[in-house]
Amino acid sequence: MKKKLPKLIIILGPTASGKTKLAVALARKFNGEIVSADSRQVYIGMDIGTGKDLKEYGKGEKRIPYHLIDIILPKTEFNVFKFKKKATVAINNITARGKTPLVVGGTGLYISALVDNYQLPLGKPDKKIRQKLKKMKIADKLEALKKLDMMTYEKIDKNNLRRIDRALEVCFNGQKFSSGSKKKPIYNTLQIGLKFPKNVMNKKIDKRVDDRLLEGMIGEIKKLHAQKISWRRMESFGLEYRFISRYLRGKYKNQEMINLLKTAIHQFAKRQMTWFKRDTKIHWIKNKSQAEKLIKKFLKK
RNA sequence: GGUCACGUAGCCAAGUGGUCCAAGGCGGCAGUUUGCAAAACUGUUAUUCGUGGGUUCGACUCCCACCGUGACCU
Asked: How many C-beta atoms lie closer than 10 Å to residue A112's C-beta?
């Protein structure tokens, strides 16, 4: 006896592929609400640089409700764990209201956490442990990991300090990092992917950078900095914030910054595709009507 | 027209007679990915040093010619 799982539609794709526009149109058609799966759009005050496109959701009665956008202040840390928790709540509420949840975004890890129902190892980021890790040598870290969690030791990138540190953090907390797993899915998901040939993709990205610059992206970042967000923190909010903050500090000339930013986003889009490529369950579509057909069929089942 | 300098991968660039059958960086390509993920990390990318000749046991490295680029001079 298999219980019927709640249905979840996911719209994913690299940056600038038009996910929001498509998702809003689909939400209109299928009585849906949108849950953003984007690690940056959660932040209040970062609109242009994160591409929130809030106008796209419509106004008044026609407005499509969205979730996980503008939910925290820039000083607050966000991560997959929080995402999974909040997204699950949002999705369940939408379903309870008799509406269709549409998860939309380009943060592959977040989407996988939902689709594959990641069981994240316990042990949240711990200041004390991180202090301790800061003082340890890499060789000692690897030695410790070998003792505490052989499985992870064998698998882990030996040069990726960030990953090694997290794994050890979990281990020092008394759990094995390798205990994380994919549990049985809790949603019946339909994943729809948007993609374009690379040269087309890159042109879209370039255009979007130019548009955002005209929309006042630099001003947005100046304003954030005026609100006491350090340059260091600013760099962590994504490519636009990183390159523009460096430009504002005189590290790059204007055109140089624009070129570097565009290239960095091209590379990012490629990384996104590398992530998505692994999931063979994604239906890659060419246009809206293909998406509509897939959803119609999916919702009927 | 003359003088000088330079010409190493898609780009930048080290190397000035023998572990150079050519360092490094960027870009490209491929990939990893379970509490920072627009992050962090990995692999890969020149049978060859502008072209042709010469010197030498041996040349990217020295000599000559040619082509190209730049600067200066007339």
From this structure: 18
Indicate left, alpha or beta for A55 from its phi (over 0: left) and psi (-120 to 50: alpha). Answer: alpha
Q: Are A273 and A14 in contact (CB under 8 A)?
A: yes
The SS3 of residue A208 is helix
The yes/no answer to whether this complex scores an ipTM above 0.85 is yes
CA A27 to C1' B1, whole Å: 76
| Residue A126 vs residues A77, A83, A112, A143, A172: alpha-carbon distances, Å | 13, 18, 24, 21, 10
Token digits of residue A244: 């523009």
Q: Is A17 marked within a binding site?
A: yes
Q: How far is CA A98 from CA A28, A66, A92, A119, A221, in A?
A: 14, 15, 10, 27, 39
Q: What is the pTM of this model?
A: 0.94
A7-119+182-300: CATH topology is Rossmann fold (3.40.50)
Name the residue ranges covered by the structural domains of chain A: 7-119+182-300, 127-179
How do beta strands A181-182 and A118-119 pair? antiparallel
Tens digits of residue pLDDT in A33-62: 999 999 999 999 999 999 999 999 999 989
Closest nucleotide to A181 by C1' from CA: B34
Distance A257 CA to B64 C1' (A): 47
